[in-house]
Amino acid sequence: MLTRRGFLKASLAGASVTAASACSTGALLGRPAPPLELVSAVNDAEGRHYISGVDSRGQQRFQIPVAERCHGGCPQPHGDHVVVFARRPGREMHVINTRNGQLERSVHAGDGYHYYGHGVYSPDARLLYVTMNNYHTSAGLVRVYDAFDGYRQVADFDLQGIGPHELRLHPDGDTLIVALGGIETHPDYDRIKLNLDRMEPALLLLDRHSGVVTARYTPSHHQLSCRHLDVSPDGVVIAGYQYEGPEWETPPLLARLDTATGVFSEPELPQEELAGLRNYTASIAISRHAPLAVVTAPLGNRAIIINYRTGELLQRVAVQDVAGALPFGEQGFVVTSGLGGVYLLSADNDQAVPHGSFPVRWDNHLTPGQFIGA
Fold it and tell me: Which residues form the signal peptide (predicted)?
């Protein structure tokens, strides 16, 4: 992963390096390009949309213009691709070659469908699983693409629910963990939520081979939209809610599922901390080396770090419009701000460590440029 020095250089140098120069300098000097480290959807001051990548030397590797605002992405295990998805109700996903920083292809969702902004690969890198909406029927589904055959569609798995959002692969390699938001949308109505009075959110476990839903866990309130999640190497899931009820209410905003035991719970945060999250969580990222998870809350201008095994709140850190997050090093996290900043967080420091600023608005999620195993 990117070192502290590397991130400092990224923040200072990345903004001034164009995609063309970053991709061509190594070739001109006869050196291979450095490995890609971070990918994110970004927007500029004029509201134009891009997919941006930063390499391990801190240079902007590419900035690819796209028609629709994008959301999340996923790296291909042991492969050359990172896929970035249009945010709901977008209709394209973009396959980027990480070796040369070029857009390899864009895949349309097809008539009657839109993406929700998230996907994940199978362990062998062949199959890509993507959350989607059939907006004629409002059926939520996971679509399966064959990455080895030009991202050909090979299957649709019906989730028996509405509004699937983020999904992750369980460490067992066979189970998909899906956040089912419960919110009905349609491209004709942009991002208007059409069914807030009859939402049925859930956290799902899905057999990735058969498409069978093997477990369904329900939030404590029907308007707690289950949106984003991560899973630890030992199979503990932390999911984040966005509450669609009255803004003065403060229901729980986190869910915890121990997949080894099947125990589902909603960790209790101190009331003042819960109120400060403003009923909205964005990214969830879990450390691969310590029992820590970070939760970003851009409306509350803060991130919190919890012990994912106990649900205990360990730290609150103020960061304006914080959203994107990834694990960093042994016990830390890197987060980005919609104002352009990049910061490092740790459980033993209540201050975000700034590492410069880019002239872009980072979107809600960060994607590692290279696959990080569980």
Answer: 1-22
